[in-house]
Amino acid sequence: MATIQALIEEGSRRLRSLPESRLEARLLLLAAAGLPEESFFRSPEALVPRRAENAFFRLVSRRREGFPLSYLTGSKEFWSLRLAVSRAVLIPRPETELIVEKALELAPAPRPVILDMGTGSGNIAIALAKELPESRIYAADCSLRALKIAAANARRHQAPNIRFVPSRLFSAFERGRRRFDVIVSNPPYVSEEEWKKLPAEIREHEPRRALVPGPTGFEFIRALVRKAPAFLHRGGWLILETGAGQAEKALSFFDGRWRLTDFARDLAGIPRVVYGRRD
Asked: Residue 188, SS3?
């Protein structure tokens, strides 16, 4: 049997083509052995059972083949929350936290009613639920597999104020015209041409329909902006993520039913989130 430290060194060597090989090796070992993070720092010389060692090197091999780290470990951190992920959901990205920041800024206090359209792993909905414990949040997705993962994440993080709803866009809310104070969404926005240029790690493993809505990349955004006013209270907000270079075009879909439309930049300075207030 080898020690935690020795296995991480060997894993890092095998993953040396990756920019964060040592970090990835550590995360893969912790996942394979079912160890908490503090084990590495507290007991680096502890021996790892042979079964866990074998599982670790299998994960390292799959990572070398381009399988996403988060799918191998089964989790991804978002808004300081550790969320379960699988190939049924898009891996949460750090830039999406900007949606949460903007929603917290604009949501009416103290008990907003929020809809997360296309919830995926539930990352946005759960982050908002933790920050706004008196809110009522509806998390919608057309994928039942995604909703199952999102609901499990909500239970894990004790977010009972979220209701998970199977829905294709607003189909589940048309009856009775439920209205919201805020609608948030990280929609699919990759065009067919852009899809072809994405890294193989994304194209071969992440769910295509969570990324590509159609030929132009704007199909879902256009429909969302067009239909959202019917499901917002007067003065309610629509907040959504866009791809690099898409903000201006996305803002052009906001018609006379909207006011105070604008965008927010991510940490790289890219206009990333567009938003508007229903008139």
From this structure: coil
| Start-end of H helices in the chain | 4-14, 21-33, 38-42, 50-64, 69-73, 97-106, 123-131, 144-156, 192-197, 200-203, 219-227, 247-251
Query: Contact, 179 vs 154, CB < 8 A?
Result: no
- Alpha carbon distance 222, 113 (integer Å): 23
Q: Is 165 helix (H, G, I), strand (E, B) or coil?
A: strand
* Residue 76: strand pairing partners: 83
Q: Is the confidence at residue 40, as pLDDT, over 90?
A: no
Domain segments of the chain: what residues? 4-65, 86-278
Mean pLDDT estimate for the chain: 96
Could you name the CATH architecture of 4-65? Answer: Orthogonal Bundle (1.10)
- Predicted model pTM: 0.94
DSSP state of 88: T
Please tell me whether residue 183 adopts helix, strand or coil conformation.
strand
Lowest mean pLDDT among 39-43, 89-93, 215-219: 39-43
Contact 227, 170 (CB under 8 A): yes
φ, ψ (nearest 5 deg) of residue 225: -65, -40
pLDDT at 247: 97
Q: How far apart are CA 275 and CA 266, in angstroms?
A: 14
- CATH fold, domain 86-278, is Rossmann fold (3.40.50)
